[in-house]
Description:
Elements (H helix, E strand, L loop, with lengths): L2 E2 L9 E9 L8 E9 L2 E6 L7 E4 L4 E4 L1 E6 L15 H15 L2 H17 L2 E7 L5 H11 L2 E8 L13 H15 L5 E7 L7 H13 L3 E6 L3 H11 L3 H8 L6 E5 L5 H10 L2 E4 L1 H6 L7 H6 L4 E3 L12 H10 L2 H4 L6 H16 L16 E4 L12 H7 L6 E6 L2 E5 L2 E2 L4 H19 L4
Parallel strand pairs: 2-5, 2-6, 7-8, 8-9, 9-10, 10-11, 11-12, 12-13, 13-14
Antiparallel strand pairs: 1-5, 2-3, 3-4, 6-15, 15-16, 16-17, 17-18
Amino acid sequence: xxxxxxxxxxxxxxxxxTNATVWPVATAEPIPNGRVLIRDGRIVRVGKFQSxxxxxxxxxxxxxxxxxIQGHVHLAQTLFRGLAEDLPLLTWLRRYIWPxxxxxxxxxxxxxxxxxxxxxxxxxxxxxxxMETTRHTGAVFAAAEQSGLMGSIGHxxxxxxxxxxxxxxxxxxxxxxxxxxLDKLRGHDRLRLAIAPRFxxxxxxxxxxxxxxxxxxxxxRLHTHASEQEQEVRLVxxxxxxxxxxxxxxxxxxxxxxxxxxxxHATRAEWELLAATQTSVLHCPTTNLKLGSGLxxxxxxxxxxxxxxxxxxxxxxxxxxxxxxxxxxxxLLQKPVRGPEAMPAATVVRLATEGGARALGWEAEMGTxxxxxxxxxxxxxxxxxHVAPSTQPAANLVFAHEPGDVELxxxxxxxxxxxxxxxxxxxxxVLALAREERAKLLRRAGLAA
Length: 449
């Protein structure tokens, strides 16, 4: 697809992208025959202008836009793909997911995360917010570091409240693990730690309070699940006397530094709490369908000014880490209930870019193509049978494009994926490692065929 005036290195100090339809997303209209000038990993200029650069990349008429941002993913679960089908949430967790997570060692977790990172890069994702498991989170950081992605990686917290001892870790030990991770990450430019208590049914109130205090002391994101299914909401009500999000609010787990996954069964009063506290909601439409959770009231939340990001959740409950699929479903699912004008395509693209950036606390760094922001961008080919002859970028992205249409993924000005090739690893080796570690994992979990 591409041609270059000069052979550019993978991370050129200065790069000019030409011959593109440029959609900054910050502006309503794409720019035909646009250009993007990048210098030292940052965007210098976007639009129609004449300029020279050390290296030039001809986009071949492709769409240049901000990289997609994966708002909720469990990289620890990529090896579980296809193992836990057709089950409700709590049964799914206890019968399969928690035993498999407990069986992870650092090698299998690394293989799972690297496979997930490869799928994200291929699908145009440049940054993500994750929740991992209660041990070996350093292995996920190692995989993300190797991949070139940006990410806020959640160390999962669970205690005896969840009645699953193999994943329970005393709070002092869990926070000590977080301290060690923070020491290793000090000054890291691309990766951050998030604090991720799993959900209200697996964490004592004191754990939730202290986790929130620790996160705020260290200026970290808080990431948890809330009101995914009706059974979950009923159990939280029985235990606390409060609605799920109301309980989290009273205990300190709402605010502009908090991202709550799902919120399918939030009450109207809780919508107002989310809005008043500027808490982000992470919308995962495929998972909400697959686990039979329901339809999150996204248009109502958006109408209240609540920030929404899109996520795939984990491969164990999706089975694809594909934000194009999530954009399509996020738009289509609302229309039979709220009318065909609900969730316009341009709005949905913003959830997958700007909304994700705000959920990660990186809105000043990414989510749009603007001067001074990191050069986190993708090039999407319009020359696909399932897209032609449309020239409407928003409609194409939401309703027609798929991950294979992504020709280039750039993070911090570095080309990390291009024309089917990954820059930092060999895909056949990643796939072979995943198969090997999955077989070992299943044996440890007692689930081997």
